Amino acid sequence: MCGIIGYAGQSGDTLDVLLDGLEGLEYRGYDSAGVALSNGDLSVCKREGELYHLQEAVDGGLDGPVGIGHTRWSTHGPPSDQNAHPHTDCSGDVAVVHNGIIENYDDLKADLADRGHEFDSDTDTEVVPHLIEERLAEGATFEEAFRSAVGRLDGSYALAAVSEDSEALLATRRDSPLVVGVGDEAAYLASDVPAFLDYTDRVVYLEDGEFARLESGSWTVSDAEGKLLEKSVSRVEWDAEETAKSGYDHYMLKEIHEQPRALRKCLRGRVDELTGSVEVEALEGLNPGSVQFVACGTSYHAALFGAQALREAGVHAQAFLASEYAIAPPPIPDDALVVGITQSGETADTLSALREAQRRGVRTLAMTNVVGSTAARECDRALFIRAGPEIGVAASKTFSSQVVAANLLASSLARRGDAREVVQALRDLPGQVQELLDSSRAEQVAERFLDAEGYFFIGRDYNHPVSMEAALKMKEITYKHAEGFAAGELKHGPLALVTEKTPVFAIVTGNDETATKTVGNVKEVEARDAPVVAVTDGASEVERYADEVLEIPETHPRVAPVLANVQLQLVAYHAANKLGRSIDKPRNLAKSVTVE
Amino acid sequence: MTVRAAVVLAAGEGTRLRPLTRNRPKPMLPAADRPILEHVFDALIGAGIERLHVVVGYKRDRVQDHFGPTYRNIPVNYVSQDKQLGSGHALLQARDAVSQEDGFLVVNGDQVIERQMVADVLDAFEEDDGNATLAVTEQADVSHYGAVVMDGDRVVELVEKPDTDEYRLLNAGVYAFDPSIFDAIEATPRVQGELALTDTLVRLIEGVDAEDGDAAETGRAAPGDATVRGVVTEELWEDATYPWDLLDVSRDLLLHGRVTEPEREESVWVADSATVHDDATLQGPVVVGPDTEVRPGAVVGPYAALGRNATVGANAVVSRSVLDTDARVGPNSTLLDCVTGQGVALGADTTVPGGPGDVRVGDTVFEDQRLGAVLADRVRAEGDVSVAPGTLVAPSATLHTGVTVSENINERAEVFR
Questions:
Q1: What residues are paired with B42 via a beta bridge?
Q2: What is the CATH number of the domain that holds A185?
Q3: Contact A435 B343 (CB under 8 A)
Q4: How many beta carbons lie within 10 A of that of residue B219, not counting itself?
Q5: Rounded to a whole number, what is the distance in Å from the CA of B118 to chain A's nearest CA?
Q6: Is the complex ipTM higher than 0.90?
Q7: A2 is catalytic
Q8: Domain containing B199: what range?
């Protein structure tokens, strides 16, 4: 999915409007973004990765009364600076952004190349600035040249162009949306209203074959022959921000609900139940002597899980906090693989840990959500979790996808054990998450313990990372004290804090020795009059000691943590919502932490 | 005038399709390889619609989760109808969303329509200066729908659920209106608290002014007065009233090739991410959804639609059936005339020998319907289970080893031998 933004108005505002516009399209996701501003001189800046790369790169340095911008989110294949929009001609005088597909670009490109044009990218879009350039060289005006170029295109497109020699922004469309925004002293252009909604709610919808000309704050629309058209201006009454949240009150709840879909994407083409095998291209041929995970926050909890799964599969593995690893790295064997888990691929602490590993000549793997992010580019390999854009600051769906990706990694590197059961459980997982979302009692549980003094989360083995993640989620969005730890640690200290005012959430799955031991811990808690919430598949007898039960479907122990965590995501969400917290943007927190 | 906005009514449960609607509304039930509503969105976008407003209510999260904030790069705006008080009431919820449009489409989200039908209504509406316009389709049985009588291109009579069989044309649920429709809806008297859009249409047809309280005598309006235009279309139009209708809907869609997966050979559509063993047989028309596995010796089709991430075990036979997302069919099972919900898990040797059978929906028994069984979301059969024709099994029921079930099985029931 791509997005276009354009602006013609006051010189000092252009860059801000374009960058805000790109942010307004954020829910469509990013893996690259770029802007072009014209000021009698054309300046273009584009970057791979998240928007802040572009923001840093331009640093307020571009100026001009007119400009265009573009974002792109690809799920396949790496983006690059070259392939990012805007695209320019040979002279760098004309810049173009485009949504859609130009079907005859092969022919056009070959013709242009024959006539000496040079191309920087593999994109279909790049033919457009060169076509404009040719007509300009023949003496045509910018608008004549733009119309002539568009006349030669087959396919679908929304196009916008600026030129060094003009203060006009030109745009047109066929089978791809484009909207003009009408301001007091400025005119806007976008593929979607949220891009400029902060500035104006008055819009003109362009039709196929129509051309818009935006210039020093005014706008005109004409037909293919150049005849000016009367267009009506309408006001957007619906809440465009609500649209971005797909009808949910918060991005976080939307993202929690997206998990079945996100997990299906994470698994697509990577597991084969018929052969019981895991086949991940990014992991082919890897056979490390040991694995070291580096990560921060939620990703660190996924790393703890991954290390445990690998150890069980007979591979020596450890999880490290990236901020500690970078400062005091452990010995790294030559045949080790260092895996950095970072949703954004931009987490500064994780990047420095990975760089430390690379300095020592060790192979690195990025497990990330963003194609084209720094981690994905710098590491030897990249395993994409394919969760789609996550806007809520508190990670939800990306944790689930990280745990699934860690499972793929563990089964793929396994020295022992049969992947078949895990593969089967992974294939069932998206449907089971849906089952849980259809029936969860998390809201009632959150309500019941809303005035608690603190929350404790306990679990053993694979459920230990979940207890930590659940506590982190609770802290992040409710601002209440919460702690998660291995159930066995309870009596070595934290039990002193347990009272009737501190509910204890116990994650107990299966009915083996581990489960029995956790149930023992639950009894200790119950004896201190603390309310107990069991998060369980019902296999053990933990329900007998619980005040509330959050049910999860039965599954393989390597997969159950995802389900338990979804229940606890919902508890944290509903608690924060009832407390009126700023769920999507908790105080003091940022989505990706790009400083150490 | 160019119409670029549409309101899609997708808030109703579709109670006659229970137990399949336990966890999602009717628009999200499967029609061949994807939900009904996806066919509707595709038809609208294909006809040039760029602003989608979807009225959601019953189990709204299922609609929102499936489509998200944009579908095929078009923004999707969700409008909430908290209480389902009829189609007119549903449309009123979208009043703010489209009040600035010169004209807009309104379509039912729970019936499969085609792009050309939408385009024809748009053309007629645009050339007729924005008079209310609706699509009309000819069907053998109109008894569950709004029957339409035309005079030239005008609709002169609209009769909901007629009890005579003299009608052949029905209201296809695809309308074009201008914003004056909202005043007309508000002026329409509620019937038992509900506002049906068709009641408003009847008033328009009969020439009752919005301001002018009482409805005129019911009856045929003089053609000159009729203000509602009808566009008769021969395009594919599909609706499911009862669970077994879903089998016919999928069959028709397969016959007409209304499937999005790539066509591997004539009438055999298989998603790229699906795995079909070389020793399995696909008999067209058949569609195999993404991530789905078909194991050695299995025979799938004809008229079978396998949804996303399903598994058909070795030597199983699945024919004239719709299997939804995550279905697991054990080895040696036979499923004929079967509709499943999501996450259904059937053990080895499950047998659904197929219709006809008697089906009980609510208090009514429908005799001799061609229905093997409806197995709703997350029904589990352990193995060697037989299901008599016409059986409806409600969600999360467990059928233990060796049982034979018939008639209606309750939600979460455990059936032992």
A1: none
A2: 3.60.20.10
A3: yes
A4: 8
A5: 17
A6: no
A7: yes
A8: 5-239
